[in-house]
Fold:
Amino acid sequence: MNSHSYGRHQRHGRGRSRRRGGRGRFQDKQRAPAPKQKTFWQRIAAFFGGNGGGQKKPATLSRNGHKQHQQQQQREPRPQRKPESVEVTSPRLYVGNLSFDATESDLFDLFNGVGHVQNAEVVSYRHNQRSKGFAFVQMQTIEEAKRAVEELHDKEFLGRKLVVSGAKSSEHSRD
Structure:
């Protein structure tokens, strides 16, 4: 019995790939010499942080196209940006630069020292409930809200200086 396959005729032999390097149409082009491979020990040393043969690593580019430095200490400190101060026209206050560990009860206790607090709400991500670092506090009166801004703005709370100002919008929208 013949071992021919019916249908399409196969040009390549049994167990051989259709394309083989260096044969066929592109025979006349010469291949570039392969780069010298690292030895086993050079690869091990490179894996564990060695330079793997004395070659210097090129500086990598970050997402914004600037070169990353190996040492982060060389970075200049960013100039502090003053937050926009919003005039207090309602009893609703914005509390920014809040520690991620701060809870609504912490804010309630802090602002109760100034006046009567109706509501304190820490804004958080829906999917993991982690704080976004700011909150809104509803005071009883506008006078208490103004006093809270005077007393608590730039006050250290849980390791961070608070930013307390009037909320930009008086209506409270929930999505």
